[in-house]
Each structure stands twice: as structure tokens, then as C-alpha cells.
Amino acid sequence: MRSFHKNKKAIYSYDEWNIIEDEFKIENNYRNETIFSLGNGYIGFRGNIEEGFAKKTEGCKGSYINGFYESEKIIYGEYQYAFPLWGQTMLNIMDTQSLEIYVDGEKFTMDNGVVLDYCRTLHMKEGKLTRYLIWKSPKGRNIEIYMEKFISLHNSHLSGFRLKLTPLNFTGKVKIVSSINGNVTNKNLRDKALITLDKGVDKNILYMMQQTKTTKFQIACGILHEIFINNKSADLQASYSIEEESVTASWEIDAEENSTILVDKFICYDTNRKHEKKDNILKNVKSDLYEACKKGYNKLLNQHERYMKNFWDNTDIIINGDEALQQGIRFNMLQLLQSTGRDGYTNIAAKGLTGEGYEGHYFWDTETYILPFFLYNNPDIAKALVMYRYYTLDSARQRAKELDHPGALYPWRTIGGEETSAYFEASTAQYHINADVVYAIKKYYEATDDKELLLNYGVEIVWETARLWADRGGFIPLRGNKFCIHEVTGPDEYKAGVDNNCYTNYMAQMHLYYAVELDDFMKKEDLEKYESLRKRLELKDEEVQLWRRAAENMYLPYNEELGINPQDDTFIYKEPYDIESIPVERLPLVFNWHPLNIWRYQVCKQADVLLLMLLQSEKFSIELKKANFDYYEPKTTHDSSLSACVFSVIASEIGYKEFAYNYFMQTARMDLDDYNNNVNKGVHTASMAGAWMCIVNGFSGLRIYDNKLHFKPYLPDKWKSYEFKITFKNSKLRIQISKDKVVYRLMKGKDISFYHFDKEVVILGENNQQSFFE
């Protein structure tokens, strides 16, 4: 690990279940907006300060709907054949978060008056955000303010907000102003995207409906309020204002000293994106708001918290001995839950629903890093992520056709399913995404035995994407007629347009073998469905035979002299470079070196061969894994947040425990400690899932061979113990690792068989366990 990757000083105080900001500094606002984000996979709110600021400050006010996007034409200096024509950007939607407070005419803001006491907390166990403070106005009036917010995981369209005010040293007028603001913009779009179609007030509901200019998607939102004074419902008449792009309600309250004013605010969004068939989304919004108000804030919050309890029951990792990493891993798992679509039509963006970095695009990160996290904890969410690729398969077919390939080619970055990346060297050329998608399908079926998904959806994806490999590669005489794949980019984006990228060839081989295997499997399982699908796809026996021949003859790079797997045909022949000599201010290289300089050296952006050794672990001996680690580790800058976790996992496997722990610390607290100084643009969701991998695949050694779980656990030196749960084939297993003992307990399921090191273990019946003493 290079000196510039050493762990940084903590920004937030350590707390196992909370992220706490105990002092507000306006210069940290942009970063904290990301850290204190909330979401439910459908709606995402940045941690914006609801009342705004008296002075202009750095930040990005943002509310988002997963999969709700606008398209804009991509402008090229020089267009070439099959370059994507349209980009896609997840939209910053109408703002419903604003809530202004006036104390006898003085507006409350954090940068006006004096904040006497302050604490903002992201409560990870409950999935809610609170802010408490005592504010002294410029004229000396003190008021206690408490705000609480959650986005429902029970009803994905709803959010709840509670404001509690207590005048401490005065009796006077308190004014509260709540609004919908439709005058919003995106940092990544040239033009304003949303046009207001309707707005107004209907039976105390503030509402607005807008439409995107190009994609023609519609979005509706509404707000409904309840106000209580001293715990009694207050029948207050609001004053309403309807402007061109805003709707506002305000209330003036005669507040007595030490009295309590409570405002419950219910927020609802709905859309009619291309996969939805909704006639009247505004009617849906109003209906949901009335129902929410009828239930009341407390009941909605309780339903949300029950969902969170179930999530943590399945997912939590308990670390005894390092509070910083305990906090880090829980923050990561919470943000993954908050950012991931659960409807089968949406996915998870590289920055989740926490910011506008990468324009809200979905990448291969989903299948390679994030889906495994859900697969072994919440398989229903993993299933939804697989289904997203099925529902976008037609777009993948179209993309393959544009590049003159048969079958289907999944886009490198997308929201709606179309390729949106203008930089083909690090996007279109990464053909391995087809194999990454198939790898996820293979692992999903392996862990769930879900034949319905595999036969009805998965096989079609596998076959259509396999067709591309057969066309993309060729049998090369000077390589002994081995099947070679040329001019591709592997996971390491610092080596673009190479021949025989090791990761790509191995993954393509796996993909082709699996396509052949599923041909036999489907024929046996459902002959009628098999014949129907083959007929619809016009798939012939000759094509399947070609897949088998290509897989059997795949060129798999290996260099006898070095005893390693070359990353590609030219990597080991490039000029070496001492990356320790690169000044920190020149990193990441992608922003500081021209590509021609990056490509010419033995310099890697991220794990490539090492990632392959994780995904296809059974194909590499420990000795080969060690040789590859020793060769590539000094050459890797880890400029990608996807890298450190993979190095940690492989380091654990080969016994490099110090490397493993240091890389894990960097992964687990990447966002909380802002390692890359860019968390203001959103979290790093793949790295967050990678932190889970460091523990489960790394420290506990989890692999799956021959359809069986295999563990090789060890305890990091600084820990007293750790535990986690794994869901596999409808059984839930809890694994507890301490200094002298490993305990496996079957929490759910009739029985389970797995391996502890080389010993087969069988546990029969729920709540039974097996212990191993070290």
C-alpha cells in the first residue's frame, strides 16, 4: 500500500449506530449533504439544510427519483460511427424539503444569529435523520428546534418530516413557510429539463406536476401538513401563494414561551416513466397523502422502522474491537439499501441517490460488487437487479446491432438501457460487461435455485449475450488457433483497446460454457419452453457448438518466465513506472496525465487480474494468486474506488493480513473520511459493497465451489470478534468468529451443508450449531 493511501483522520466522531455532526461549519456543507442523505431506492434526498442560508454557500440542493431522467444530445468535436447520440441524466426534481421559520419577523438560518446548541444525527438503525439546535436570533430570542425526517421503506412514494419548535425566552409570532419549488436545475445538463404542467392547492394539499422536455416523463408531487400546539390539533388557516413555478403555504402562530408547536409534513412523489402505465399520477399522489395523514406520522415511521429492523436482522455485521470500522460498515450497508431500486425496472447508480456524480448512471458495479451483497442477505433485491437487465435486453440488442454484432451488448453506462457514454475507449470497449451480467445470473441461481427466473428470463440473456462473444473473438492461427478477443478494455481503464485482456477472456470463457450448459439444462427442465425460446431467437445447434468450441479453445494469458497472468498481450512489455514517486496532487492520473502517457507504462488504475482471481477463485492456485498480487500491487494506483476492496480480499486469502486490513480500512471509511476528496458529489456505492466483501469474502474466506459454501475464517489482530449472516438456498446461517472459536448457527432452514476449511459440516434443524476451536 502506497503512502498516499494511508488511512485518514476521522471526520465524524465514532459511534456504532450513528453519524453525528456536533458542530455546524458552513464550509463542510457540500460534503455533509452527501453523508446525511436519505433514500429508499425510489426517492433520494441529499442532506440539505431545509431553511436555506442567509448568504450564498457551496452545495447542491438535490432530490431524485431513481430512473427518472432526461436525455440531451451528446456534442462531439468529431463524431464517428456508432457513437451514442444521446446522454441520460438523473434529474434533480422539484424541491419539497424547504421549511422556513420566522421568529417575530427574524428568519432562522444557521449563518444568521447564534447557534447555542447543535447536533445532526443520521440514525442508521432506524434509517432517519434528526437535527436538534437552540438558536438565538439577532434580537436575542431563543428557540429550540427539532427536525426529523425519513423516506419510507414501507411505501416507496412517501416521506415524512416533523418539525418541533419551543420558544424559550419569549412570547410572540412564529411563522412557518413550506413550499414546492419547481425551478430546479441539474449541474450536468445544459438546459433546464422540467416544464410545469399543473400546480395549485387542493383541500390543503400543495401539488405540482411537471414533464421532461425530451423523454416526456411526467412527475407529480404533493405536500400535506398537520399542525399541533401543545399536543392538540390546531385548526389554523394557511395562506397560500401560487407562482409560476412554486406553491407555498404559510402559517402565523401566536406562540407562548415554553409552548410546543409541532408540524408534521407528508411528502409524496409519483412518475409515469417508460415502464409504468399510470393514467393519473397526480390523483395517486393526493390519494397517498390523504391515506398517510389518516394513519399519522408515528404509524408511518413505525412501519418504516419495522422494515429497517428486518433489514438489520438479515444484514448486520457486528465487529467487536474497532468502533470506527463498525460505524463504517453499517453506514455503507445503509446507503446501499437507500440507493438500490427494488422494482425490477431500476438499478443502483454509482453515486446512489446521494448526488449528481456520474449523472445517476448504472454500471457493471451492480453485478460485480453490489448484487452479491444483496444476494446473500436480501435475495429479493438481488432478483430485482437481475430483472432490470432483462427489461433492458432489447436496448442491448439494439446496441449490438449498432456495432454490427449479433445478439446483445449491454451498455457501459445507462439509466434507461441505452448506451450513454461518449468515451468509447473506457466504455463500449469494455465488452466484459456482458460476462459480468451473466456471472450475476449464474451466482443468483446458484444461491437461490430460482428456476422460474432462470428459465423465463435468465437463459434468454445468457444466449443473446453469448452470441456477441462468438462474433467478437476469432481463432487465430499464430496463437495455435486459440480463440482470441482483440481491442477491448478490461476493468483496468488505464489500458484501453488491448488484445486478450486476461479478465475478459476468462469471463468470456465462463459465459460461453454457461450458455452451453443452459442449453442442456433447459432442454431437460422444460422442453416446450426450450423449443419456443430457441425458435424465437432463431438459435441453431451450430451456434451452440461454436460457443463450446470457443470456450474450449479460449486463449488464457500466462507467462512462464514471470509465473503470472499477464493483464493483456502487451502489459508486461511496457516500461515500468515507480508510482510511489507520483506526487499526491497528480492523482488520480486520469485527471492529470494524458491517456497516451497512462497507456505506455505498467500502471494500473484498479484491480483487474486480481478481480478475476476473486470471481473465478477456483481456477487459480494460492501460489499463482500470491505471484499475481506481488506483481500488480506495486503497479496499482487505486484511482478507482472499486480497487482497494479486491486487494483486501485477495490479501486475506494469501495470508497478507496487514495488507488486507489496511485496504479494508480504506474501503470501509472511504466516504465517511472522504478519502478521495470528492464525496460531495455522492457516495461510492461499489466500494461500499466492497467493504462487505472484505469481511465476508476476505476475513471469513467465503467462496462457493460446487454449489457449496466454503469458509476459511480468521480474526484480524485488532478485533476481539466479529459476526455476520449469510442467506443461501433459503437457509440463513450466522457465523461468529472470535479469538479461539468459530461458531456456525443455522437461524433458518431445515438443514445446511458447507465446509469449514477442508472439513464438511452438516447442521440439521433450526437453531442448531457447530463450533470449531482454534
UniProtKB/TrEMBL annotation:
<dbReference type="GO" id="GO:0016757">
    <property type="term" value="F:glycosyltransferase activity"/>
</dbReference>
<dbReference type="InterPro" id="IPR037018">
    <property type="entry name" value="GH65_N"/>
</dbReference>
<dbReference type="InterPro" id="IPR005194">
    <property type="entry name" value="Glyco_hydro_65_C"/>
</dbReference>
<feature type="domain" description="Glycoside hydrolase family 65 C-terminal">
    <location>
        <begin position="702"/>
        <end position="762"/>
    </location>
</feature>
<feature type="coiled-coil region">
    <location>
        <begin position="523"/>
        <end position="550"/>
    </location>
</feature>
<dbReference type="InterPro" id="IPR017045">
    <property type="entry name" value="Malt_Pase/Glycosyl_Hdrlase"/>
</dbReference>
<dbReference type="GO" id="GO:0030246">
    <property type="term" value="F:carbohydrate binding"/>
</dbReference>
<protein>
    <submittedName>
        <fullName>Alpha,alpha-trehalose phosphorylase</fullName>
    </submittedName>
</protein>
<dbReference type="GO" id="GO:0004553">
    <property type="term" value="F:hydrolase activity, hydrolyzing O-glycosyl compounds"/>
</dbReference>
<feature type="binding site">
    <location>
        <begin position="364"/>
        <end position="365"/>
    </location>
    <ligand>
        <name>substrate</name>
    </ligand>
</feature>
<dbReference type="GO" id="GO:0005975">
    <property type="term" value="P:carbohydrate metabolic process"/>
</dbReference>
<dbReference type="InterPro" id="IPR012341">
    <property type="entry name" value="6hp_glycosidase-like_sf"/>
</dbReference>
<dbReference type="InterPro" id="IPR005195">
    <property type="entry name" value="Glyco_hydro_65_M"/>
</dbReference>
<feature type="binding site">
    <location>
        <begin position="605"/>
        <end position="606"/>
    </location>
    <ligand>
        <name>substrate</name>
    </ligand>
</feature>
<feature type="active site" description="Proton donor">
    <location>
        <position position="493"/>
    </location>
</feature>
<dbReference type="InterPro" id="IPR005196">
    <property type="entry name" value="Glyco_hydro_65_N"/>
</dbReference>
<dbReference type="InterPro" id="IPR011013">
    <property type="entry name" value="Gal_mutarotase_sf_dom"/>
</dbReference>
<dbReference type="Pfam" id="PF03633">
    <property type="entry name" value="Glyco_hydro_65C"/>
</dbReference>
<dbReference type="Pfam" id="PF03632">
    <property type="entry name" value="Glyco_hydro_65m"/>
</dbReference>
<feature type="domain" description="Glycoside hydrolase family 65 N-terminal">
    <location>
        <begin position="21"/>
        <end position="273"/>
    </location>
</feature>
<comment type="similarity">
    <text>Belongs to the glycosyl hydrolase 65 family.</text>
</comment>
<feature type="domain" description="Glycoside hydrolase family 65 central catalytic">
    <location>
        <begin position="330"/>
        <end position="693"/>
    </location>
</feature>
<keyword id="KW-0175">Coiled coil</keyword>
<keyword id="KW-0328">Glycosyltransferase</keyword>
<keyword id="KW-0808">Transferase</keyword>
<dbReference type="InterPro" id="IPR008928">
    <property type="entry name" value="6-hairpin_glycosidase_sf"/>
</dbReference>
<dbReference type="Pfam" id="PF03636">
    <property type="entry name" value="Glyco_hydro_65N"/>
</dbReference>
